[in-house]
Amino acid sequence: MKYVVILGDGMADRPLQILNNKTPLESANIPDINRLSREGQTGLIKTVPDEFKPGSDVANLSVLGYAPGKYYSGRSPLEALSMGINMEPSDVAIRCNLVTIKDSVMIDYSAGEITSNEAKELIEAVNNELGSDIFKFYSGVSYRHCLILKETVDVSKIILTPPHDITNKNIKEYLPKGSMAYKFKEMIQNSEKILKNHPINLKRIADGKKPATHIWLWGAGLKPNLTSFRELYGLKGTIISAVDLLKGIAIGAKMNAPEIAGATGTLNTNLDNKVKALITAFENGDDYVYLHIEAPDECGHQGDPIGKIKAIEMVNRAVKLTIDYLDSTNCPYTIAILSDHATPIETRTHSREAVPYTIYNSINPAKSRLNHSESDAKNGVYLSTGQDLIKEMLGVHR
User: Fold this and answer.
1) How many CB atoms lie within 10 A of CB 371?
2) pTM of the predicted model as reported, rounded to 2 decimal places
């Protein structure tokens, strides 16, 4: 048996007037997902426990079968694993976004989806000015970077707000609070002076693109300690993703995390290469592949319903290509399709409601007769934790 999870990050949503009171999922052309949904098991799954804020870190750990209450130690430390940062147990990792702020308003949490090459130069400039023996900045992918704090501090008392939660809001009330707040605020303020006249930003402005005006800090945590995926579930696995968060989870779980040429985490990602990596993983003897597609979440944060529909249709294409391959092998398989969390267009940030999921077993279809949508899923099988997904896939839940 081969196991596949195809996860459209932030794919779930709420009805929108602009879409005739349908959700993006209900508006998208997803015949392959809906076929598997009608022939498989469909319902709602609660991926984020009540005691956690909704986010891709907690939700993806949960869907992969890692109980957040036991394994979650913060978002940025997982990304630090992917960046190859060697953290000491007392180190604190903090996500460092490059953002666009104008007149104290958070215009764009991604600085216009700045490229990795541009961002690398900007983060190096920030590190040269603000880095020290205690603080060091590391560049990542696009707008997503990392600050390592080499000082013992109570992480629970560091209060930082994700920038995608405050799009178009005044940043003043969302600046860092709690432990080391003064230093973090100072870094954000001083970054403006470093970035304002940097050649990268001047060129972006000349090209009509948003400049990276500031850094923004959030997602603090300590070094993670994940049990290997094989030890937990007896499966050899691979995670395929463009983003450091998922790659870091893979490294922590001792799963494979191949580099995918052209994978960007946006609508412009190279989906064909991601599916080729999935096929290669199975050809190399893997039992389980987790294919993560970030684009629906990015479109949700941008408040772009048409882009989100396109991103969901991209997920459908990934499903079709994957099923075509699996059917050609004549090997039995179980495939799950879901969101990690909702990213409603109306709020442009994550929410904690349960999201639609589908599980299709090629040997024993469940025949739900339900489409893969927020409304139909209410009539299906409810799963109360993200970890229940893999248990259902393995047939050990009930």
Assistant:
1) 19
2) 0.88
For the record, the structure tokens of 206 come out as 């000349």
Question: How does residue 45 score in pLDDT terms, banded at 50, 70 and 90?
Answer: very high
Residue type, 70: K
| CA separation for the pair 248, 319 (Å, rounded) | 24
Q: Phi, psi (5° rounding) for residue 16?
A: -125, 135
Mean predicted lDDT score pLDDT of the chain: 96
Structure confidence at residue 304 (pLDDT): 97
What are the structure tokens assigned to 213, written together? 């005006």
Q: Which domains does the chain have, with CATH numbers?
A: 2-71+226-394 (3.40.720.10), 92-221 (no CATH)
> Residue 152 has what pLDDT?
87
Residues 6+ apart with CB under 8 A from 128: none
The single-letter DSSP state of residue 72 is -
Q: How many CB atoms are located within 10 Å of the residue 134 CB?
A: 10
* CA trace torsion 371, 376, 378, 379 (10° rounding): -80
Task: Tokens for 389, please give them.
Answer: 């997904």
**Start-to-end C-alpha separation, the chain:** 19
- CA–CA separation, 377 and 56 (whole Å): 21
Instruction: Encode 213-254 in three state secondary structure.
Output: CEEEEEEEECCCCCCCHHHHHCCCEEEECCCHHHHHHHHHCC
State the sign of the Cα–Cα–Cα–Cα dihedral 94, 95, 98, 100: negative
- State both tokens at 240: 């395929």
